[in-house]
Amino acid sequence: MPLSLDAINLTHDPFSKRIVKSGDRVDLGQGHEMEFVSAPNLHWPDTIFSFDHRTQTLFTCDAFGMHYCSDSTFDDNLEAIEADFRFYYDCLMGPNARSLLNAMKKMGDLGKIKIIANGHGPLLYHNLDILRECYHNWSQKQAKAETVVAVFCATDYGYSDRLAAAICQGVQKTGVGVEIMDLTTADSQEIQELAHRAAGIVIGMPPSANVAAQAAVSSLLAVTKDKQSIGLFECYGNDDEPIDPLRRKFIDLGVKEAFPAVRIKETPTAATYQLLEEAGTDIGQLLVRERNIKQIKALDVNMEKALGRISSGLYIITTKKSDINGAMLASWVAQASLQPLGFTVAVAKDRAIDSLMQEGDSFVLNVLEEGNYQEIKKHFLKRLYPGADRFAGVKTQTANNGCPILTDALAYMECEVVSSIECSDHWILYCTVKDGRVSKPNGLTAVRHRKVGNYY
Ligand SMILES: Cc1cc2nc3c(=O)[nH]c(=O)nc-3n(C[C@H](O)[C@H](O)[C@H](O)COP(=O)(O)O)c2cc1C
What is the mean pLDDT of residues 199-214? Predict the structure, then answer.
């Protein structure tokens, strides 16, 4: 841990200290010689790893962590921790992939590392090589991304780091790279280099009194080009710099605004983080739209016509998790098991609903009726601003699992997501059915006939 003034304020008691830098060693006795490795930006600008040569244990602060807790001290069950290990990486480490690759290179110079003792989750020991390789591969993929969104904020201000992490998560869902940079500690050259390289720029408004961050924002304005997209959000600090004057300056430069400025007036809730995640997805989707259209056009015409003969029904998935609800028109739904009754649904990775459809989550599958679905379909395909109410003007009832049932649906099923498989640009979710009703016994399911297989 870096020994900053903040650390002293935490203890409220004076203690003897020595400030260390990369490469320094401190002998704690009995062979425990600690070596320090500077690993900046791994969630905090001043992260330092500490290596105990005797036990070959590397203390990594937030890096290699996960929000997972069980009775095991060690990573003895790889299957149990995999998903959390990946999720934590995506949220907190992925946006700093370049810094992570630098830190891992320095780790290589320490010699054999037997244990990684991180600040969150089990100690990594049994599967250390596999987990290190995962970090390396994911970071290389991120660092190589051709299209990058740069997220700038003063990370120690308001809720900015958590809000920025939600945006990064949303961007990553679209397959676009994301890098986060601290406006207070990064030097202006680093800031301008990243801003110059990025196709999209997101700024969390720094406090008015932070002179360094204000100067950094000015240097961003100096390098922004009209082909870039921007997005702005408040950090819910006491003294956020107002959004509008900055927004005006960017618009005057001719840049596209990827999402309406997010103005946070109350303590962030789950809905706020969802809103920011959706804003991140919006900027990512804006940047990849043209590339995706080109890829779809390049498909073999006969093959796509043949695939188009796969037909399916039409459904609306509806969910509610704490105070957030979501809905999506879906046709890639297919029954998959008899006991228990189960089916699969393919959900694109960049769908807003993705975060409400994780393993263990509940939802309702509403079946649309042939000859009676156009209005509902149109309603649920409308593009809404992040955070808008998907159900405004739609008749609903509440299912036992708390999710909305569409009153006009032909049938509904209460379901739970059991497992998922990653399939390129979609997640295939295997779901089981807990309950269900048909509202019109003679009604027929709406069928989706397509001409080509390169869209739903
Ligand atoms: C006929 C039709 C069927 C669709 N089926 C699916 C589907 O099975 N899976 C999916 O991820 N998206 C599907 N979509 C796309 C989504 O319904 C739609 O783009 C989405 O609701 C937009 O949400 P977003 O804000 O998350 O991008 C379908 C779209 C149409 C027009």
Answer: 92
Fill in the amino acid letter for 332: W
Hey, where are the domains in the chain? 5-143, 146-295, 304-448
Q: Is the pLDDT of residue 2 over 70?
A: no
Cα 90 to averaged position of ligand 1 atoms, centre (Å): 24
CA 180 / ligand 1 centre spacing (Å)? 30
Distance of CA 286 from the midpoint of ligand 1 (Å):
16
Q: What confidence score (pLDDT) does residue 17 get?
A: 83
User: Which residue minimizes the CA distance to atom 19 of ligand 1?
Assistant: 381
Q: Which atom from ligand 1 is nearest to the alpha carbon of 351? A: 26
Tell me the per-residue pLDDT of 267-326, one tens digit each, with 9 for 90 and over: 999 989 999 999 999 999 999 987 777 777 777 888 989 999 999 999 999 999 988 999
Q: Please tell me the predicted confidence (pLDDT) of residue 144.
A: 83
Hey, which CATH number is domain 146-295, 3.10.450.350, 3.40.50.300, 1.10.490.160, 3.40.50.360? 3.40.50.360
Substitution site in 331, 353, 368, 390 for ligand 1 pocket (most atoms within 8 Å of beta carbon): 331
In CATH terms, the superfamily for domain 5-143 is: Ribonuclease Z/Hydroxyacylglutathione hydrolase-like (3.60.15.10)
CA of 217 to the centre of ligand 1 (A): 37
Q: Distance between CA 80 and CA 76 in Å, rounded?
A: 9
pLDDT of the residue at 185: 87
Task: Return the structure tokens found at 266.
Answer: 């109350």
Give the closest residue (by CA) to ligand 1 atom 6: 330
Gap from CA of 353 to ligand 1 centroid (Å): 10
Q: Which option is the CATH number for 304-448: 2.30.110.10, 3.90.550.10, 2.120.10.30, 1.25.40.80?
A: 2.30.110.10
Ligand 1 site residues (CB inside 6 A) read: 328-332, 346-348, 351-352, 381, 448, 456
